[in-house]
Amino acid sequence: MTPRMPLTGREPLRILTAVPSVCALALSAAVGGPAAAQAPPAAQVALAQPVGASPTLPRPAGAQPSGYGWAWPLEPRPAVVRQFDPPRRPWLSGHRGADLGAVRGAEVRSPQAGTVVFSGWVVDRPVVTIDHGDGLRSSFEPVVGTATVGAAIARGEPVGALAPGEAGHCGPDDCLHWGVRRGDEYVDPLAFIEDRRPSVLLPWG
User: Fold this and answer.
1) pLDDT digits (tens, 9 = 90+) for 62-78
2) pTM surpassing 0.70?
3) Across the strands, what pairs with 56?
């Protein structure tokens, strides 16, 4: 029988120093085993955060755009009086755009370069629509257009003036309704100005 080595006081130190290695192996298994060692630099940085930190992983690309650098269609920056709230089904009610606080007669500007493809009345309200390319179109109501159909418009260039609330989306109050479509799908107009994608946090511990 091999004699048992006596404890010398160093063994607890060796046991403690092994703990980080065990934790590292457990973390590696949790995030994907050996592949974690080949993780992209951003992920390695997130995993290298000190104990107690809440590392942030790169945010996944979502359906909503970001970083397009569009401008607000009103100056100064307007208040958002009603947010984008799409219906769960295309045939259900919802809010397919954003309502911005404004006063009648306010100058409405193109949020991005494009071409005016419509300027006229739809049922009981005046509407201006701008094609920005890449399948994206902005529509504004109630707006009496000042640019002709077919005109090329620069970012920030005036395209019309806000009509009285009685003829608009928020009647009898005044507001600018801004809708954006990608193809046939309505998307959040404010996402083209502000990055609203949620951060994804990696649980720690």
Assistant:
1) 344 445 789 999 999 99
2) no
3) 201
